[in-house]
Amino acid sequence: MSEDYNRGYLNMELLRFTTAGSVDDGKSTLIGRLLYDSKAIFEDQMESIERASQKTGDGEVNLALLTDGLRAEREQGITIDVAYRYFATPKRKFIIADTPGHVQYTRNMVTGASTANVALILVDARNGIIEQTLRHAFIASLLQIPHIIVCVNKMDLVDFDESVFNEIKDGFDDISTKLDVQDIRFVPISAKLGDNVVERSNNMDWYDGPTLMYLLENIHIANDINHIDTRFPVQYVIRPMRDEYHDYRSYAGRIEGGIFRKGDTVKILPSGLTSKVKSIDTFENHVEEAFAPQSVALSLEDDIDISRGDLIIKDNGLPKSGQDIEMMVCWFSENPMILGSKYTLKHTTNDLRCVVKDVNYKMDINTLEHLTDDKKIGLNDIAKITIKTTKPLFYDSYQKNRKTGSVILIDEATNNTVAAGMII
């Protein structure tokens, strides 16, 4: 491949999307169709899928096998773990997270959806909106996924009936009034046959909207990142040992918000000391400015004691600071949360300890009710809790910045991640 092609590929905009839906709604088949119709799979992959499909005896190529990679998934015909797939079109690069539909794998869905720009929520046209649809829509809203595309699948099994599509669309519109999502689109599709996935459907001439692939290629995501409030968590202090670099010091990390420019006055937290940006380095060269989500190295004009976990900001938008923090959590561990228990909290590049002070309520995510009397938080439960940290934490609300507003809780004894948290 030419150098120009590689550079163009690297500079292409990246869209991350996740799939969600009930069991047998066709999530894996839809992703297989996207990959197949966009020419994003190799011949040997297709041959392998054809051989595996022959064993099932239904006489058709099962495109779901492109994503259901685990042996248990193929044998049971279900998705168990999050399967990530990568592909590109001339317009964009994509990372797909194919997440499970079973209730007991809610934690896997949260993991796959946590970084998504778009959530594809599949609805079986025969069954309409069910409890799992509400559950997945709520989780997408909780994780502040900016865009939802509701794919009404298996339209071929309802004779491509427009009234079925409209009934589901109206039902989801009613649900959306309880959700914090600004952009919701609807597409009638048949993942098995390919209708309205990549190519327009001849069977649904009543639908004049875009295909799913057109939406994925063109949906506007540039404003999904907070480019106003500058946030640069320091990941690593670069101090080369070679003599010619004896006076060089810079701070490596990923910009999680805003824009940094050479000459900007910045503040370092928690010390509160200020300096100016001397230079901004990427892997390839020096740049005059950098913005989220670029990974860069910042060097400052003053020699200040800065270490991993510190936060470099500008005064245009200050983060919140405190030790008593309220957050929504999704519990990942089979061991239940216990009031008063201590956990390691990881926030951007910062590690500290915390204790669970209170369970404010547990969510019934099938009805969206707050269960204030139920304080027992177990595997896959979602709840609002209050924690107290051992030292002040500088953070944003998750709604304002998904990176500086999220945490994970780690069991100190086992080092297992037990919860993902979204700060309120």
Spell out the key features of this protein.
8 helices; alpha+beta; 19% helix; 3 domains; globular; Elongation Factor Tu (Ef-tu), domain 3; Rossmann fold; eight-stranded antiparallel sheet; 424 residues; six-stranded mixed sheet
Condensed summary:
The chain is an alpha+beta fold and 424 residues long.
Please give a structural write-up.
- Mean pLDDT is 85; it is low at 70-80.
- The strands form four sheets. Strands 7, 8, 9, 11, 12, 13, 15 and 16 form an eight-stranded antiparallel sheet that branches. The chain has a six-stranded mixed sheet with strand order 2-3-1-4-5-6, sandwiched between helices. Strands 17-21-19-18-22-23 form a six-stranded antiparallel β-barrel.
- The chain is built from eight helices and 23 strands.
- With 424 residues, the chain is an alpha+beta fold.
- The chain has helices at 3-11, 27-37, 43-56, 71-76, 106-113, 131-142, 162-176, 212-218; strands spanning 14-20, 83-88, 93-98, 118-124, 147-153, 183-188, 232-233, 236-238, 250-254, 259-261, 265-269, 274-281, 286-287, 289-291, 295-300, 311-313, 320-331, 342-347, 350-364, 369-371, 382-395, 406-410, 417-423.
- It has three domains: 3-223, 3-Layer(aba) Sandwich (Rossmann fold); 232-313, Elongation Factor Tu (Ef-tu), domain 3 (Beta Barrel), CATH 2.40.30; 320-423, Translation factors (Elongation Factor Tu (Ef-tu), domain 3).
